[in-house]
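JOB MANIFEST
job_type = single_chain_structure
chain_count = 1
residues = 146
[input]
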Amino acid sequence: MTDPQSAVRTDGRSAALDARYGRTGRSRRPLVFGIVGVLALVALVWLFWAASVSANPPVASRLLGYKIVSSTSATATIQVDRTKSVEAQCRVQAKAADFSIVGEITVTVAADSPRQQSVDTTLTTQRAATAVILVGCTTADAHRPN
């Protein structure tokens, strides 16, 4: 059993120490947990919003094929898929064996054209190309190539 006198002495000592060092009986722990919880919720909402925006770009593209026609020319076929009827700018590059860019063209896909279409383009090159790559397509609202 505990002695009631010792409990009083302990509480008295704690009260004296609390008074001496300015400690209060109120804990800040619920406030800290609340702030951390709100910040975590805001971060989670932003993460879902950013993921949904990135998952649905206004334009997507892919290179279907290319052909090196001559030492100064190459052709490419790209597929352009748009979620809205917006104008898209698609950049295609021809590269040489040393990976330097030897030709480049920007193809404009009109807003009133079909949303899903294949586009053929011809690139003029400075010297013989060994590959053609699609950098990607952008719109006025989406500046990052897709």
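[summary]
The radius of gyration is 33 Å.
The beta strands are 59-70, 73-82, 88-95, 101-109, 116-124, 131-138.
exit_status = 0
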